């Protein structure tokens, strides 16, 4: 684990491969933790006529999280960004997650969660998604590996800080505020 | 429904063996390998035969590496349908498992990292004389069939023999998954029975699906993958460490329990946080009946980084039903009595874990639970017992008001070798012994007759 000073903003330029030194994970090279934590950016082309299905799924996730705020907790996310764009080569979907775990390590957990929340229905509308995804974990992993686009620059205003640490700090702040209130 | 007449007994039946021998074999030519397999086939017990009567004196199991299947004549298109991690074998994937430094394959013994390793024969025996008798018998068969023994390992239970334990003195065999349809009920606190597809190929798994099996199906059905590892236990180092960490025997025992997550009797720290409780340790109805998220979220009783909490995070882990494995094995090397100084003999555990997916089950356990320094955000820790250590990792023992942090944990164990095997069903063993091409001819003849 990188011991870093959270109070000192940091930027890191990343080689084209997406890593500095080749470290093999279970499914391929491990992508490093950067000042902006771990990241996962998957970009794939949307199948013709499926834009609306993908777009509507945003509202489905909103409802799922409202009903059970812990539903995405296993992904150890900070932020999730979904973008649809077309720059002349057809409509593409971008799934970008910023999180606190090495993706290679928890890939099956993520896929199980994608299945459980129906997130896979979004992926099913993307070109290249394996037809036998239900039974062929290797093919699903290959899809994510093939469509992952590593960053070449990442920046953190408060680098290397986990969501757990941020929440701990905010809880402490709230608790301390309550103590001060009691002392008025 | 599990095909108990076809599945080898190894993962489904716990035999009352006090001795064992593993022989690691190489087949110089396909006919010799088949001759060896033909001669031993009848001695391999099915789950039904062995499960029905434990009066036997010895139990035999046979498994193959990917190179072994190749040497026995399985064709390339079939070989390519086996999972990539099995094709590669354990040694090339050692870094994925965290087996670096002194645990790396360059230091392994017994030729286990060699591509010449083709098969293992596992003999469990009721006692040492029976083991020795079988050993002689097998030596004869090896000579007659012309295969080569790369290395072997003798195993014996260590005293006291009343309960299974390893050289550090911790009770073993406390958590075994109950396979759905195999008869045994899970012990309280162990969760629901696990679908057979998590351990045996060709059955529905926890996703409710049957993953596409390696081909041909006659070869893969009712088979399992085995990860073998031989792990030396440095009993002297362990005892010296405890002596440094605690002034009294009670303090030392508490440190030993904090590393493991259970007292040496097996009593879990979550249920017995302050002192040893041998009656609890021995009681299978109680010794797994606990969780972590509700009963010990901060690890004040059982440290988050302790061995048992890493190997089975229970309700603090995700997807737990898909990470379970069946363990088999035993201790090798002489017992080191409590009052004896380290004698320099190699002693340890030589064990197998059985599963349907090496990468999802075994490799995950090693890569993430045992050797990820940031497991559960611990930052700089590895499994204190089985993790790879070089003195640079810590162990945090949460306690009020301030946690205790042991810095620079020594290596209590060293992995001396390992390999991936496929444990086929009985029909598959026959298929391999007859030669896949002979079987193909039989199939072709049969279909010619029916057409």
UniProtKB/TrEMBL annotation, chain A:
<protein>
    <submittedName>
        <fullName>Uncharacterized protein</fullName>
    </submittedName>
</protein>
UniProtKB/TrEMBL annotation, chain B:
<dbReference type="InterPro" id="IPR006314">
    <property type="entry name" value="Dyp_peroxidase"/>
</dbReference>
<dbReference type="GO" id="GO:0004601">
    <property type="term" value="F:peroxidase activity"/>
</dbReference>
<dbReference type="GO" id="GO:0046872">
    <property type="term" value="F:metal ion binding"/>
</dbReference>
<dbReference type="GO" id="GO:0005829">
    <property type="term" value="C:cytosol"/>
</dbReference>
<keyword id="KW-0575">Peroxidase</keyword>
<keyword id="KW-0560">Oxidoreductase</keyword>
<keyword id="KW-0479">Metal-binding</keyword>
<protein>
    <submittedName>
        <fullName>Peroxidase</fullName>
    </submittedName>
</protein>
<keyword id="KW-0408">Iron</keyword>
<dbReference type="GO" id="GO:0020037">
    <property type="term" value="F:heme binding"/>
</dbReference>
<dbReference type="InterPro" id="IPR011008">
    <property type="entry name" value="Dimeric_a/b-barrel"/>
</dbReference>
